[in-house]
Amino acid sequence: MVKISWMKLKGSQNLRLRLLLSTLSSTPILIEDIRADATWPGLRPHEVSFLRLLEKISDDCLVEINETGTKLKYKPGIVMGGKHLIHDCGVIRSIGYFLEPLILLGLFGRKPLCIRLRGITNDSKDPSVDTFRSTTLPILKRFGVNPEGLELKIESRGVAPGGGGEVILSVPILQDSLRAVTWIDEGMVKRIRGVTFSTRVSVQFENTMIHAARGIFNCLLPDVHIFTDHKAGLLAGRSPGYGISLVAETTSGCFISADNSVCYAQGEEEADIEDEAMQDLIPPEDTGEQAAGVLLGEIEQGGVVDSTHQGLLFLLCALCPQDVSKVRVGKLSPHGIEVLRHLRDFLGVKFVIKPDPSTETVILKCVGCGLKNLSRKVS
Q1: Which of 170, 267, 279, 350 is the most exposed place for a label (fewest CB within 10 A)?
Q2: What angle do the packed helices 334-347 and 15-25 form, to 10 degrees?
Q3: Cβ(314)–Cβ(340) under 8 Å?
Q4: Domains in the chain, ordered, with CATH?
Q5: pLDDT tens column, 147-181
Q6: 107-120 pLDDT tens trace
Q7: Using 50, 70 and 90 to split pLDDT, how confident is the model at 89?
Q8: Is residue 78 a contact partner of residue 116, using CB atoms and an 8 Å limit?
Q9: Which residues, in sequence order, are CB contacts of 310 under 8 Å at separation 6+?
Q10: Is the pLDDT of residue 369 over 50?
Q11: 119 neighbors 87 (Cβ within 8 angstroms)
């Protein structure tokens, strides 16, 4: 029997990122002291759900968790992909939490991936499924991912605390590897698109959000279109809520996004839902204005992607062939910095970081690790 060499890590932070990089680099990991001193120690339900998802799409994957959940052994297998897969994401974190790692793993699978995910489609913690469809997928196309077969279909909406949303994600496999990019021109914003949603509330909420957001954008540019997506009945999930997702497209083909959603208290706060939830719900007018303000802030910050997509951008650059990739981002986000550190530890990829004082942005360069899709079925 071959002795397994484990990479030893501590703590619960960046667990999803560690599991993703462990799978891509085929590095077995041993994580200890997972919330060991917390009142409720160990892995959270959404983290266990993500491990179960990895088991579904992989073959020969080993997951061992001790009784208290504070110690995790993970030995990655071969990403198989496949069709007609179904996964319940639960109601602690939204579907967006699972989408980003899932699409990267799907690219390096043996067969194209088609999976139905159930749970919360829109919340305030994770990027919404609308943002994923309008912004994340175009970023992947930049790196040479085939647009045919790359799709996210929203079947039904679901907000916290009940969930009930459903999406279908389709990811093609890479025939060889990603494509290195030089992507430093942000361009100027030429148009703004968006979509509002509402579930189990009046459709008038959406019109109010659109009016508030357009009131800000129309002072700056004329090409603003925000569509509505009102759901009722079974397509509206189990809880009332509403929200808006906005995306700015630039002259150089960059997509900058922001979203905002309002729903009742999350699971841990259900005891206070009667008293506090109604007070804390933001009116639809403020929801639209806040989303517009966040989007303008992201545009002002500069860079070819918004702050929530920095981590994905760095991951894609690191997975490219052994060629130089060069990208521009605004102020480095805390998550982006953690991604850079983990890429150094797992893939041995180091980025050269050079601030650009004239635009207050940062230019990053790296040589990719040259990861190829060796899992794919050779016909």
Answers
A1: 279
A2: 30
A3: yes
A4: 1-78 (3.30.110), 189-267+283-301 (3.30.360.20), 306-367 (3.30.1370)
A5: 999 999 999 999 999 999 999 999 999 988 999 99
A6: 999 999 999 999 99
A7: very high
A8: no
A9: 303, 329, 332, 333, 335, 336, 339
A10: yes
A11: no
User: Residue 127, SS3?
Assistant: coil
DSSP state of 274: I
Omega into 161 within 30° of 0, i.e. cis? yes
Task: Give the DSSP H/E element, type plus range, for residue 153.
Answer: strand 151-156
Q: Give CA 369 to chain center in angstroms.
A: 22
Contacts of 138 (CB under 8 A, 6+ apart): 253, 255
236: region left, alpha or beta (phi > 0 left; psi from -120 to 50 alpha): alpha
User: What pLDDT does residue 375 have?
Assistant: 72
Axis crossing angle, helix 96-107 with helix 15-25, rounded to the nearest 10: 10
For the purposes of burial, counting CB atoms within 10 Å of the CB of 314, is it exposed (0-12), middle (13-18) or buried (19 or more)? buried
Place of tokens 């009930």: 164
CA count, 13 A, side-chain hemisphere, 286: 5
In single-letter form, the type of residue at position 194 comes to: G
| Strand bridging mode 182-183 / 352-356 | unpaired
**Helix-helix angle 96-107:45-57, to 10 degrees:** 20
Those residues with Cβ within 8 angstroms of residue 335's Cβ, 6 or more apart along the chain or in another chain: 310, 311
Which amino acid belongs to residue 330? G
Percent of the chain scoring above 70 in pLDDT: 94
Mean pLDDT, range 365-372, rounded to an integer? 95
Looking at residue 244, the DSSP 8-state letter turns out to be E
Burial track 285-309 (b if 16+ CB lie within 10 A, e otherwise): eebbbbbbebbbebbebbbbbbbbb
State pLDDT tens for residues 111-144.
Answer: 999 999 999 999 989 999 999 999 999 999 999 9
